[in-house]
Amino acid sequence: MASPQSANEVLDRLDRLAAFKELAHQGPDPEATERQHAKGKLTARERIELLLDKGSFTEIEQLRRHRAVGFGLEAKKPYTDGVVTGWGTVEGRTVFVYAHDFRIFGGALGEAHATKIHKIMDMAIAAGAPLVSLNDGAGARIQEGVSALAGYGGIFQRNTRASGVIPQISVMLGPCAGGAAYSPALTDFVFMVRETSQMFITGPDVVKAVTGEEITQDGLGGADVHAGTSGVAHFAYDDEETCLAEVRYLLSLLPQNNREMPPRTVCADPVDRTGDALLDLVPTDGGRAYDVRGVIEEVVDDGEYMEVHATWAPNLVCALARVDGHVVGVVANQPASLAGVLDIRASEKGARFVQFCDSFNIPLITLVDVPGFLPGVDQEHDGIIRRGAKLLYAYCNATVPRISVVLRKAYGGAYIVMDSRSIGADIALAWPGNEIAVMGAEGAANVVFRREIAAADDPEAMRRQKIDEYRDELVHPYYAAERGLVDDVIDPRETRSVLCRAVAMLSAKDADLPRRKHGNPPQ
Protein backbone atom coordinates (compact mmCIF):
# COMPACT_ATOMS: atom_id res chain seq x y z
CA MET A 1 0.00 0.00 0.00
CA ALA A 2 1.34 3.44 -0.93
CA SER A 3 2.25 5.74 1.92
CA PRO A 4 0.36 9.03 2.37
CA GLN A 5 3.55 10.89 1.56
CA SER A 6 4.03 9.15 -1.80
CA ALA A 7 0.36 9.60 -2.66
CA ASN A 8 0.66 13.31 -2.03
CA GLU A 9 3.73 13.47 -4.28
CA VAL A 10 1.76 11.88 -7.10
CA LEU A 11 -1.06 14.35 -6.62
CA ASP A 12 1.43 17.21 -6.64
CA ARG A 13 2.89 15.97 -9.91
CA LEU A 14 -0.57 15.65 -11.42
CA ASP A 15 -1.39 19.19 -10.35
CA ARG A 16 1.82 20.38 -11.98
CA LEU A 17 0.98 18.48 -15.17
CA ALA A 18 -2.50 20.01 -15.21
CA ALA A 19 -0.97 23.46 -14.81
CA PHE A 20 1.39 22.88 -17.74
CA LYS A 21 -1.47 21.68 -19.94
CA GLU A 22 -3.65 24.59 -18.93
CA LEU A 23 -0.83 26.95 -19.88
CA ALA A 24 -0.51 25.17 -23.24
CA HIS A 25 -4.24 25.66 -23.81
CA GLN A 26 -4.40 29.29 -22.77
CA GLY A 27 -1.14 30.37 -24.39
CA PRO A 28 1.55 32.60 -22.85
CA ASP A 29 -0.39 35.84 -23.37
CA PRO A 30 -4.08 36.02 -22.39
CA GLU A 31 -4.49 39.19 -24.44
CA ALA A 32 -3.42 37.35 -27.60
CA THR A 33 -6.74 35.49 -27.65
CA GLU A 34 -8.62 38.78 -27.42
CA ARG A 35 -6.58 40.19 -30.29
CA GLN A 36 -7.36 37.11 -32.38
CA HIS A 37 -11.08 37.44 -31.71
CA ALA A 38 -10.95 41.19 -32.41
CA LYS A 39 -9.81 40.37 -35.94
CA GLY A 40 -12.87 38.16 -36.41
CA LYS A 41 -10.72 35.04 -36.17
CA LEU A 42 -11.00 31.96 -33.98
CA THR A 43 -8.13 30.39 -32.10
CA ALA A 44 -6.48 27.18 -33.28
CA ARG A 45 -8.31 25.05 -30.70
CA GLU A 46 -11.67 26.68 -31.40
CA ARG A 47 -11.21 25.83 -35.07
CA ILE A 48 -10.34 22.22 -34.30
CA GLU A 49 -13.47 21.93 -32.14
CA LEU A 50 -15.60 23.08 -35.08
CA LEU A 51 -13.88 20.75 -37.54
CA LEU A 52 -13.94 17.52 -35.54
CA ASP A 53 -16.69 15.58 -33.81
CA LYS A 54 -17.26 16.87 -30.30
CA GLY A 55 -14.81 15.46 -27.78
CA SER A 56 -12.92 13.37 -30.36
CA PHE A 57 -9.66 15.34 -30.56
CA THR A 58 -6.49 13.71 -29.25
CA GLU A 59 -3.55 16.09 -29.11
CA ILE A 60 0.09 15.06 -29.38
CA GLU A 61 3.26 16.91 -28.40
CA GLN A 62 1.30 19.50 -26.50
CA LEU A 63 4.28 20.23 -24.27
CA ARG A 64 6.79 20.56 -27.10
CA ARG A 65 9.03 23.66 -26.92
CA HIS A 66 11.73 24.98 -29.23
CA ARG A 67 15.46 24.77 -28.47
CA ALA A 68 16.56 27.86 -30.39
CA VAL A 69 18.72 30.56 -28.86
CA GLY A 70 19.54 34.08 -29.90
CA PHE A 71 17.42 37.14 -30.72
CA GLY A 72 15.61 36.68 -27.40
CA LEU A 73 14.17 33.26 -28.27
CA GLU A 74 15.81 31.59 -25.27
CA ALA A 75 13.52 33.67 -23.03
CA LYS A 76 10.38 32.74 -24.98
CA LYS A 77 9.65 29.02 -24.98
CA PRO A 78 5.87 28.59 -25.06
CA TYR A 79 4.33 25.15 -25.05
CA THR A 80 3.12 23.77 -28.44
CA ASP A 81 5.60 26.12 -30.20
CA GLY A 82 2.72 27.67 -32.11
CA VAL A 83 1.08 24.64 -33.70
CA VAL A 84 -1.57 22.25 -32.36
CA THR A 85 -1.38 18.71 -33.78
CA GLY A 86 -3.39 15.54 -33.32
CA TRP A 87 -6.30 13.52 -34.63
CA GLY A 88 -10.02 13.11 -34.13
CA THR A 89 -13.06 12.08 -36.13
CA VAL A 90 -15.45 13.61 -38.65
CA GLU A 91 -18.73 11.71 -38.72
CA GLY A 92 -16.95 8.91 -36.89
CA ARG A 93 -14.03 8.54 -39.32
CA THR A 94 -10.46 9.37 -38.36
CA VAL A 95 -8.99 12.66 -39.55
CA PHE A 96 -5.55 14.08 -38.73
CA VAL A 97 -5.14 17.82 -38.25
CA TYR A 98 -2.62 20.50 -37.51
CA ALA A 99 -3.51 24.11 -36.76
CA HIS A 100 -1.21 27.12 -36.60
CA ASP A 101 -1.68 29.12 -33.41
CA PHE A 102 -1.27 32.75 -34.44
CA ARG A 103 -1.12 33.80 -30.78
CA ILE A 104 2.36 32.25 -30.50
CA PHE A 105 5.10 33.77 -32.69
CA GLY A 106 2.37 34.76 -35.14
CA GLY A 107 2.08 31.09 -36.10
CA ALA A 108 5.55 31.29 -37.67
CA LEU A 109 7.26 27.99 -38.39
CA GLY A 110 10.42 27.06 -36.52
CA GLU A 111 12.33 23.79 -36.20
CA ALA A 112 10.23 22.28 -33.38
CA HIS A 113 7.04 23.58 -34.97
CA ALA A 114 7.96 21.92 -38.27
CA THR A 115 8.94 18.65 -36.59
CA LYS A 116 5.48 18.43 -35.03
CA ILE A 117 3.87 18.89 -38.43
CA HIS A 118 6.19 16.31 -40.01
CA LYS A 119 5.18 13.81 -37.34
CA ILE A 120 1.43 14.28 -37.77
CA MET A 121 1.79 14.04 -41.56
CA ASP A 122 3.74 10.79 -41.22
CA MET A 123 1.06 9.45 -38.91
CA ALA A 124 -1.71 10.35 -41.37
CA ILE A 125 0.08 8.60 -44.22
CA ALA A 126 0.79 5.52 -42.09
CA ALA A 127 -2.77 5.34 -40.77
CA GLY A 128 -4.30 5.98 -44.20
CA ALA A 129 -6.53 8.87 -43.10
CA PRO A 130 -7.17 12.39 -44.42
CA LEU A 131 -5.00 15.32 -43.33
CA VAL A 132 -6.45 18.79 -42.75
CA SER A 133 -4.19 21.80 -42.17
CA LEU A 134 -5.65 24.93 -40.57
CA ASN A 135 -3.28 27.62 -41.79
CA ASP A 136 -2.81 30.91 -39.98
CA GLY A 137 0.87 31.76 -39.87
CA ALA A 138 3.44 34.37 -40.69
CA GLY A 139 5.76 32.09 -42.65
CA ALA A 140 9.21 30.97 -41.56
CA ARG A 141 10.48 32.05 -38.15
CA ILE A 142 13.20 34.49 -39.15
CA GLN A 143 15.10 34.13 -35.88
CA GLU A 144 15.74 30.44 -36.59
CA GLY A 145 17.16 31.01 -40.06
CA VAL A 146 17.71 28.08 -42.38
CA SER A 147 16.38 25.58 -39.82
CA ALA A 148 12.92 27.04 -40.38
CA LEU A 149 13.30 26.88 -44.16
CA ALA A 150 14.36 23.24 -43.96
CA GLY A 151 11.18 22.59 -42.00
CA TYR A 152 9.13 23.72 -44.99
CA GLY A 153 11.11 21.39 -47.22
CA GLY A 154 10.07 18.47 -45.03
CA ILE A 155 6.43 19.51 -45.30
CA PHE A 156 6.59 19.80 -49.10
CA GLN A 157 8.23 16.39 -49.39
CA ARG A 158 5.47 14.80 -47.31
CA ASN A 159 2.73 16.64 -49.21
CA THR A 160 4.09 15.09 -52.37
CA ARG A 161 4.45 11.63 -50.85
CA ALA A 162 0.87 11.77 -49.58
CA SER A 163 -0.51 12.99 -52.93
CA GLY A 164 -2.95 10.46 -54.31
CA VAL A 165 -2.58 8.36 -51.16
CA ILE A 166 -4.67 10.26 -48.61
CA PRO A 167 -6.92 13.30 -49.13
CA GLN A 168 -5.14 16.53 -48.17
CA ILE A 169 -7.16 19.66 -47.43
CA SER A 170 -5.72 23.10 -46.68
CA VAL A 171 -7.90 25.64 -44.90
CA MET A 172 -6.58 29.19 -45.11
CA LEU A 173 -7.69 31.17 -42.06
CA GLY A 174 -5.04 33.89 -41.96
CA PRO A 175 -1.93 35.00 -43.83
CA CYS A 176 0.21 32.59 -45.82
CA ALA A 177 3.20 34.20 -47.52
CA GLY A 178 6.38 33.21 -49.27
CA GLY A 179 7.38 29.57 -49.55
CA ALA A 180 4.69 28.64 -47.03
CA ALA A 181 2.09 29.05 -49.79
CA TYR A 182 3.47 26.06 -51.69
CA SER A 183 2.24 23.49 -49.17
CA PRO A 184 -1.46 24.37 -49.77
CA ALA A 185 -0.76 24.41 -53.51
CA LEU A 186 0.43 20.80 -53.25
CA THR A 187 -2.73 19.61 -51.51
CA ASP A 188 -5.98 18.43 -53.07
CA PHE A 189 -8.28 21.26 -51.97
CA VAL A 190 -7.78 24.80 -50.68
CA PHE A 191 -10.47 26.59 -48.66
CA MET A 192 -10.24 30.34 -47.93
CA VAL A 193 -12.17 32.82 -45.79
CA ARG A 194 -12.87 36.27 -47.19
CA GLU A 195 -11.14 39.29 -45.65
CA THR A 196 -9.11 37.27 -43.11
CA SER A 197 -7.04 34.94 -45.30
CA GLN A 198 -4.45 35.82 -47.94
CA MET A 199 -1.88 33.89 -49.93
CA PHE A 200 1.00 35.31 -51.95
CA ILE A 201 4.64 34.65 -52.70
CA THR A 202 5.70 38.29 -52.36
CA GLY A 203 3.59 40.77 -50.42
CA PRO A 204 2.29 44.19 -51.47
CA ASP A 205 5.39 46.03 -50.18
CA VAL A 206 7.74 43.91 -52.27
CA VAL A 207 5.48 44.21 -55.30
CA LYS A 208 5.49 47.99 -54.98
CA ALA A 209 9.27 48.13 -54.54
CA VAL A 210 9.94 45.96 -57.59
CA THR A 211 7.17 46.90 -60.03
CA GLY A 212 5.75 50.14 -58.67
CA GLU A 213 2.28 48.61 -58.43
CA GLU A 214 0.23 49.47 -55.36
CA ILE A 215 -2.23 46.87 -54.11
CA THR A 216 -3.78 45.69 -50.86
CA GLN A 217 -3.18 42.25 -49.35
CA ASP A 218 -6.71 41.16 -50.28
CA GLY A 219 -6.34 42.58 -53.78
CA LEU A 220 -3.12 40.67 -54.24
CA GLY A 221 -3.97 37.35 -52.65
CA GLY A 222 -7.39 37.39 -51.01
CA ALA A 223 -10.00 34.65 -51.11
CA ASP A 224 -11.95 35.95 -54.11
CA VAL A 225 -8.75 36.60 -56.07
CA HIS A 226 -7.61 33.01 -55.65
CA ALA A 227 -11.10 31.54 -56.08
CA GLY A 228 -11.94 33.48 -59.23
CA THR A 229 -8.73 34.70 -60.86
CA SER A 230 -5.72 32.51 -60.05
CA GLY A 231 -7.54 29.24 -59.40
CA VAL A 232 -5.39 28.55 -56.31
CA ALA A 233 -8.45 28.28 -54.02
CA HIS A 234 -11.23 25.79 -54.68
CA PHE A 235 -13.71 27.28 -52.19
CA ALA A 236 -14.23 30.71 -50.59
CA TYR A 237 -16.58 31.54 -47.70
CA ASP A 238 -17.57 34.56 -45.64
CA ASP A 239 -16.80 33.16 -42.19
CA GLU A 240 -14.78 30.43 -40.51
CA GLU A 241 -17.80 28.55 -39.16
CA THR A 242 -19.32 28.04 -42.61
CA CYS A 243 -15.91 27.22 -44.08
CA LEU A 244 -15.18 24.47 -41.54
CA ALA A 245 -18.71 23.05 -41.88
CA GLU A 246 -18.08 22.71 -45.63
CA VAL A 247 -14.74 21.00 -44.96
CA ARG A 248 -16.65 18.44 -42.88
CA TYR A 249 -19.11 17.95 -45.75
CA LEU A 250 -16.30 17.45 -48.24
CA LEU A 251 -14.68 14.84 -45.98
CA SER A 252 -18.01 12.98 -45.85
CA LEU A 253 -17.75 12.50 -49.63
CA LEU A 254 -14.16 11.23 -49.68
CA PRO A 255 -12.61 7.86 -48.90
CA GLN A 256 -10.04 7.60 -46.14
CA ASN A 257 -7.31 6.73 -48.63
CA ASN A 258 -6.65 5.46 -52.13
CA ARG A 259 -7.22 1.83 -51.11
CA GLU A 260 -10.82 2.42 -50.07
CA MET A 261 -14.01 3.31 -51.88
CA PRO A 262 -15.84 6.54 -51.02
CA PRO A 263 -18.49 6.07 -48.31
CA ARG A 264 -21.85 5.01 -49.71
CA THR A 265 -25.03 6.22 -48.05
CA VAL A 266 -28.60 4.95 -48.06
CA CYS A 267 -30.42 6.85 -50.79
CA ALA A 268 -33.98 7.99 -50.17
CA ASP A 269 -34.21 9.59 -53.64
CA PRO A 270 -35.82 6.98 -55.96
CA VAL A 271 -33.43 5.53 -58.51
CA ASP A 272 -36.16 5.48 -61.14
CA ARG A 273 -37.24 9.07 -60.53
CA THR A 274 -38.00 10.65 -63.90
CA GLY A 275 -36.60 14.06 -64.76
CA ASP A 276 -39.45 15.67 -66.65
CA ALA A 277 -37.84 19.08 -66.12
CA LEU A 278 -34.92 18.02 -68.32
CA LEU A 279 -37.11 18.32 -71.42
CA ASP A 280 -37.33 22.07 -70.87
CA LEU A 281 -33.92 22.74 -69.29
CA VAL A 282 -31.86 22.09 -72.41
CA PRO A 283 -33.00 24.06 -75.50
CA THR A 284 -33.03 22.19 -78.81
CA ASP A 285 -31.40 25.19 -80.48
CA GLY A 286 -27.68 24.58 -80.08
CA GLY A 287 -27.01 28.32 -80.01
CA ARG A 288 -29.15 29.01 -76.94
CA ALA A 289 -27.53 29.09 -73.50
CA TYR A 290 -28.74 27.31 -70.36
CA ASP A 291 -27.34 26.50 -66.92
CA VAL A 292 -26.04 22.93 -66.87
CA ARG A 293 -26.22 22.95 -63.08
CA GLY A 294 -29.95 22.45 -63.47
CA VAL A 295 -29.24 19.18 -65.28
CA ILE A 296 -26.89 18.08 -62.51
CA GLU A 297 -29.54 18.82 -59.88
CA GLU A 298 -32.06 16.67 -61.75
CA VAL A 299 -29.87 13.56 -61.98
CA VAL A 300 -27.98 13.44 -58.65
CA ASP A 301 -29.42 12.36 -55.30
CA ASP A 302 -31.74 14.98 -53.81
CA GLY A 303 -30.31 17.61 -56.16
CA GLU A 304 -27.29 18.05 -53.86
CA TYR A 305 -23.76 18.57 -55.11
CA MET A 306 -20.57 20.33 -54.05
CA GLU A 307 -19.14 22.44 -56.86
CA VAL A 308 -15.36 22.76 -57.00
CA HIS A 309 -13.81 25.99 -58.37
CA ALA A 310 -17.28 27.47 -58.84
CA THR A 311 -15.99 30.93 -59.84
CA TRP A 312 -12.82 29.95 -61.71
CA ALA A 313 -13.16 28.78 -65.33
CA PRO A 314 -16.96 28.73 -65.01
CA ASN A 315 -17.34 27.38 -68.56
CA LEU A 316 -16.66 23.95 -67.07
CA VAL A 317 -18.50 22.70 -64.00
CA CYS A 318 -16.77 20.19 -61.70
CA ALA A 319 -18.69 18.82 -58.74
CA LEU A 320 -18.88 16.00 -56.23
CA ALA A 321 -22.30 14.43 -55.71
CA ARG A 322 -24.02 11.12 -55.07
CA VAL A 323 -25.94 8.88 -57.45
CA ASP A 324 -27.96 6.16 -55.68
CA GLY A 325 -25.74 6.73 -52.67
CA HIS A 326 -22.50 6.30 -54.65
CA VAL A 327 -20.13 9.29 -54.63
CA VAL A 328 -19.40 10.49 -58.17
CA GLY A 329 -17.42 13.28 -59.78
CA VAL A 330 -19.37 15.29 -62.36
CA VAL A 331 -17.65 17.18 -65.18
CA ALA A 332 -19.96 19.26 -67.36
CA ASN A 333 -19.61 21.90 -70.05
CA GLN A 334 -21.44 25.08 -69.03
CA PRO A 335 -23.23 26.73 -72.00
CA ALA A 336 -24.13 29.68 -69.75
CA SER A 337 -20.45 30.74 -69.77
CA LEU A 338 -18.51 31.19 -73.03
CA ALA A 339 -21.00 28.81 -74.67
CA GLY A 340 -19.32 25.95 -72.79
CA VAL A 341 -16.13 25.99 -74.85
CA LEU A 342 -12.94 24.45 -73.54
CA ASP A 343 -10.15 26.94 -72.97
CA ILE A 344 -6.87 26.90 -71.05
CA ARG A 345 -8.38 27.41 -67.62
CA ALA A 346 -11.26 24.99 -68.11
CA SER A 347 -8.88 22.31 -69.37
CA GLU A 348 -6.59 22.67 -66.36
CA LYS A 349 -9.53 22.76 -63.97
CA GLY A 350 -11.03 19.62 -65.46
CA ALA A 351 -7.71 17.78 -65.59
CA ARG A 352 -6.97 18.40 -61.93
CA PHE A 353 -10.47 17.28 -60.91
CA VAL A 354 -10.40 14.13 -63.05
CA GLN A 355 -7.00 13.19 -61.63
CA PHE A 356 -8.27 13.64 -58.08
CA CYS A 357 -11.34 11.48 -58.69
CA ASP A 358 -9.22 8.78 -60.30
CA SER A 359 -6.76 8.84 -57.38
CA PHE A 360 -9.52 8.19 -54.85
CA ASN A 361 -11.77 5.73 -56.68
CA ILE A 362 -14.55 8.19 -57.48
CA PRO A 363 -16.50 7.33 -60.68
CA LEU A 364 -16.72 10.06 -63.31
CA ILE A 365 -19.88 11.27 -65.03
CA THR A 366 -19.26 13.68 -67.92
CA LEU A 367 -22.10 15.80 -69.32
CA VAL A 368 -21.13 17.02 -72.78
CA ASP A 369 -22.34 20.11 -74.61
CA VAL A 370 -19.23 21.59 -76.17
CA PRO A 371 -18.81 23.61 -79.38
CA GLY A 372 -15.03 23.16 -79.43
CA PHE A 373 -11.89 24.78 -78.06
CA LEU A 374 -11.81 28.55 -77.67
CA PRO A 375 -10.09 30.15 -80.68
CA GLY A 376 -7.79 33.12 -80.29
CA VAL A 377 -4.20 34.30 -80.49
CA ASP A 378 -3.88 34.51 -76.72
CA GLN A 379 -5.10 30.95 -76.31
CA GLU A 380 -2.65 29.62 -78.87
CA HIS A 381 0.29 31.63 -77.59
CA ASP A 382 -0.43 30.73 -73.98
CA GLY A 383 -0.34 27.03 -74.81
CA ILE A 384 -3.86 25.73 -75.38
CA ILE A 385 -2.31 22.72 -77.14
CA ARG A 386 -0.22 21.48 -74.23
CA ARG A 387 -2.61 22.71 -71.56
CA GLY A 388 -5.69 21.35 -73.28
CA ALA A 389 -3.81 18.07 -73.51
CA LYS A 390 -3.80 17.92 -69.71
CA LEU A 391 -7.52 17.15 -69.70
CA LEU A 392 -7.09 14.59 -72.46
CA TYR A 393 -4.23 12.92 -70.55
CA ALA A 394 -6.21 12.87 -67.31
CA TYR A 395 -9.19 11.13 -68.89
CA CYS A 396 -7.07 8.64 -70.85
CA ASN A 397 -5.13 7.81 -67.70
CA ALA A 398 -8.18 7.35 -65.47
CA THR A 399 -9.14 3.80 -64.52
CA VAL A 400 -12.26 4.58 -62.47
CA PRO A 401 -15.72 3.99 -63.97
CA ARG A 402 -16.35 6.59 -66.66
CA ILE A 403 -19.77 7.44 -68.10
CA SER A 404 -20.38 10.21 -70.61
CA VAL A 405 -23.66 11.72 -71.77
CA VAL A 406 -23.87 14.02 -74.81
CA LEU A 407 -26.68 16.42 -73.97
CA ARG A 408 -26.65 18.44 -77.16
CA LYS A 409 -23.63 19.31 -79.32
CA ALA A 410 -20.18 17.75 -79.27
CA TYR A 411 -17.87 19.11 -81.94
CA GLY A 412 -14.32 18.42 -83.02
CA GLY A 413 -11.41 17.66 -80.75
CA ALA A 414 -13.34 18.93 -77.75
CA TYR A 415 -15.80 16.04 -78.19
CA ILE A 416 -12.92 13.58 -78.12
CA VAL A 417 -11.39 15.18 -75.03
CA MET A 418 -14.67 15.19 -73.07
CA ASP A 419 -14.38 11.48 -72.28
CA SER A 420 -15.63 10.08 -75.57
CA ARG A 421 -15.82 6.35 -76.22
CA SER A 422 -12.65 6.54 -78.32
CA ILE A 423 -10.53 7.56 -75.30
CA GLY A 424 -11.93 4.95 -72.97
CA ALA A 425 -15.35 5.91 -71.60
CA ASP A 426 -16.97 2.72 -70.26
CA ILE A 427 -20.49 3.83 -71.15
CA ALA A 428 -21.20 6.50 -73.79
CA LEU A 429 -24.76 7.83 -73.95
CA ALA A 430 -26.52 10.61 -75.84
CA TRP A 431 -29.81 12.43 -75.82
CA PRO A 432 -31.95 12.37 -79.00
CA GLY A 433 -31.00 15.92 -79.97
CA ASN A 434 -27.26 15.29 -79.92
CA GLU A 435 -24.99 16.58 -82.68
CA ILE A 436 -21.67 14.74 -82.65
CA ALA A 437 -19.52 15.91 -85.54
CA VAL A 438 -16.23 17.41 -86.63
CA MET A 439 -17.94 20.81 -86.55
CA GLY A 440 -21.40 22.32 -86.80
CA ALA A 441 -23.35 21.81 -90.00
CA GLU A 442 -23.14 25.50 -90.90
CA GLY A 443 -19.35 25.64 -90.72
CA ALA A 444 -18.92 22.25 -92.36
CA ALA A 445 -21.13 23.15 -95.31
CA ASN A 446 -19.15 26.33 -95.91
CA VAL A 447 -15.97 24.30 -96.14
CA VAL A 448 -17.11 21.16 -97.94
CA PHE A 449 -19.42 22.84 -100.46
CA ARG A 450 -17.74 26.20 -100.88
CA ARG A 451 -17.36 25.83 -104.67
CA GLU A 452 -20.97 24.80 -105.24
CA ILE A 453 -22.18 27.64 -103.03
CA ALA A 454 -19.98 30.21 -104.79
CA ALA A 455 -21.09 29.04 -108.26
CA ALA A 456 -24.82 28.98 -107.47
CA ASP A 457 -27.21 31.60 -108.80
CA ASP A 458 -28.52 31.99 -105.26
CA PRO A 459 -25.55 31.27 -102.95
CA GLU A 460 -27.56 31.70 -99.77
CA ALA A 461 -30.26 29.26 -100.85
CA MET A 462 -27.59 26.79 -101.96
CA ARG A 463 -25.81 27.21 -98.62
CA ARG A 464 -29.01 26.41 -96.69
CA GLN A 465 -29.59 23.39 -98.90
CA LYS A 466 -26.07 22.07 -98.31
CA ILE A 467 -26.35 22.67 -94.56
CA ASP A 468 -29.49 20.51 -94.45
CA GLU A 469 -27.80 17.92 -96.64
CA TYR A 470 -24.72 17.72 -94.38
CA ARG A 471 -26.85 17.60 -91.24
CA ASP A 472 -29.02 14.79 -92.60
CA GLU A 473 -25.99 12.77 -93.69
CA LEU A 474 -23.47 13.21 -90.85
CA VAL A 475 -24.88 15.20 -87.94
CA HIS A 476 -28.11 13.39 -87.21
CA PRO A 477 -28.49 12.07 -83.66
CA TYR A 478 -28.01 8.42 -84.56
CA TYR A 479 -24.88 8.61 -86.70
CA ALA A 480 -22.55 7.90 -83.77
CA ALA A 481 -24.86 5.20 -82.37
CA GLU A 482 -24.91 3.41 -85.73
CA ARG A 483 -21.12 3.21 -85.61
CA GLY A 484 -20.84 2.02 -82.01
CA LEU A 485 -19.44 5.30 -80.71
CA VAL A 486 -22.52 5.76 -78.53
CA ASP A 487 -23.91 2.83 -76.55
CA ASP A 488 -27.44 4.16 -76.45
CA VAL A 489 -29.57 7.18 -77.27
CA ILE A 490 -31.74 7.69 -74.20
CA ASP A 491 -34.85 9.59 -73.18
CA PRO A 492 -33.55 12.61 -71.22
CA ARG A 493 -36.13 11.94 -68.53
CA GLU A 494 -34.50 8.57 -67.81
CA THR A 495 -30.98 9.95 -67.42
CA ARG A 496 -30.91 9.51 -63.64
CA SER A 497 -32.06 5.90 -63.69
CA VAL A 498 -29.64 5.00 -66.49
CA LEU A 499 -26.74 6.62 -64.63
CA CYS A 500 -27.66 4.85 -61.38
CA ARG A 501 -27.66 1.47 -63.09
CA ALA A 502 -24.41 2.19 -64.91
CA VAL A 503 -22.58 3.31 -61.77
CA ALA A 504 -23.81 0.23 -59.89
CA MET A 505 -22.70 -2.07 -62.72
CA LEU A 506 -19.26 -0.48 -62.93
CA SER A 507 -18.66 -0.36 -59.17
CA ALA A 508 -16.52 -3.49 -59.35
CA LYS A 509 -14.50 -2.30 -62.37
CA ASP A 510 -10.87 -3.38 -62.24
CA ALA A 511 -8.49 -1.80 -64.70
CA ASP A 512 -4.72 -1.50 -64.52
CA LEU A 513 -2.32 0.77 -66.33
CA PRO A 514 0.95 -0.51 -67.79
CA ARG A 515 3.72 -0.90 -65.22
CA ARG A 516 5.76 2.28 -65.01
CA LYS A 517 7.24 4.62 -62.46
CA HIS A 518 4.85 7.38 -63.51
CA GLY A 519 3.63 9.04 -66.67
CA ASN A 520 4.87 12.34 -68.05
CA PRO A 521 1.70 14.44 -68.42
CA PRO A 522 1.81 17.64 -70.46
CA GLN A 523 2.64 20.74 -68.45
TrEMBL record:
Domain CoA carboxyltransferase C-terminal: 270-517
Coiled-coil stretches: none
GO (cellular component) term, any one: acetyl-CoA carboxylase complex
Any GO molecular function: propionyl-CoA carboxylase activity
Domain CoA carboxyltransferase N-terminal stretches: 4-266
InterPro entries per record: AccD/PCCB (IPR051047), AcCoA_carboxyl_beta (IPR034733), ClpP/crotonase-like_dom_sf (IPR029045), COA_CT_C (IPR011763), COA_CT_N (IPR011762)
Pfam families, sorted: Carboxyl_trans
Domain of life the protein comes from: Bacteria
Database matches in PROSITE patterns: COA_CT_CTER, COA_CT_NTER
Keywords: Transferase
Gene3D superfamilies to which the protein is assigned, alphabetical: 2-enoyl-CoA Hydratase, Chain A, domain 1 (3.90.226.10)
Spans traversing the lipid bilayer: none
Protein name: Methylmalonyl-CoA carboxyltransferase
Organism of derivation: Streptomyces vietnamensis
